[in-house]
């Protein structure tokens, strides 16, 4: 459910016609709906209300925009960050350091120091080596770092290979069979307060069975570790719940996920932590674009839009589907390929797709672009960095300005010896 709907034949974001945003900000531009973001944040929380003790850490990497983080901070969310850069965003949005979790397989010593300085709440350790390094850094500062150990449960999340993270040959976490001994050794280090386990098996998960299996294995591991006399008070179950990208997609929602978690974690006697990203932000945003022209093709015409793979990378990277819709649909349909202007064949959003008929100058949207959209944008082909807008009822604001190619060029230098 979102708040991008047709009114009198024109697509609106809440109470704002998308054509108004296109006219004033230009295209391409991401448009987020505050009402949708808030609703998703609340629905996810409510779905977990059967659990005794819950902590929510929004996965910043899915949409790190400062206004989005501010809104989620107001909804009581902390943050799951994977770099110092993301941590500073979460802090800038007003999230307390204590509510921030630091994940990621390559935390540098410098990032660890910055995080300790910020009073970060929890490090999710990805290896014994990383734990030893963090312990030493913390001890040298006279501090104790709170941490969990990320475990690779060797479970296939049955999602796209590039967003699967919980199989034994993925780079994430420590091997399940070695986790208990590593946990014990890390627990003995001064400078570390080991308080639990973490797991995250992948993204865009559309089948709950792999998660059920992984969480069950984590419960067993937790009991084994407690049996050694060690403390486990926090269990971080990661993120990964999928969202519908196509009209008619049926997949488990937050309520079913919450029910599965409640069943799987019954009797755990631990604080259960979650790191949702896409399920909060995915359907909360669209990428608004203008058709440059329609070019004849061999089998189907090419609809060339002014958005490209540098603005929305998911189709090129993950073969992802984004519904395409005209902002003022005529009711006519066409079969077309939708492509961007970048000089790569992978700059293709759809092939042979049945879409609203569009012509040069028309506005259109790619839906479900609020997660892993703007955050992956780059300036390939010396294009601008795409701007972002947030709508709230009748109000709207630019929440990230377009960064023009001239600004990027201004940061470059020709060395004297080349001048
Ligand atoms: C990416 C990621 C998430 C969020 O995944 P979603 O599919 O967006 O919910 C959560 N935790 C970790 C460790 C991640 O890497």
TrEMBL record:
Top-level class of the enzyme under EC nomenclature: lyase
Modification type N6-(pyridoxal phosphate)lysine: residues: 61
Statement: the UniProt record of this protein carries the keyword NADP: no
Cofactors (names): pyridoxal 5'-phosphate
Pathway the protein contributes to: Amino-acid biosynthesis; L-lysine biosynthesis via DAP pathway; L-lysine from DL-2,6-diaminopimelate: step 1/1
Binding, pyridoxal 5'-phosphate: 240, 275-278, 372
Catalytic function, reaction form: meso-2,6-diaminopimelate + H(+) = L-lysine + CO2
GO terms, molecular function: diaminopimelate decarboxylase activity
UniProt KW Phosphoprotein keyword: no
Keyword tags: Amino-acid biosynthesis, Decarboxylase, Lyase, Lysine biosynthesis, Pyridoxal phosphate
HAMAP family: LysA
Protein family (similarity comment): Belongs to the Orn/Lys/Arg decarboxylase class-II family. LysA subfamily.
Subunit organization: Homodimer.
NCBIfam families named in the record: lysA (TIGR01048)
Known function: Specifically catalyzes the decarboxylation of meso-diaminopimelate (meso-DAP) to L-lysine.
Identification of the protein by name: Diaminopimelate decarboxylase
Species classification: Bacteria, Pseudomonadati, Pseudomonadota, Alphaproteobacteria, Sphingomonadales
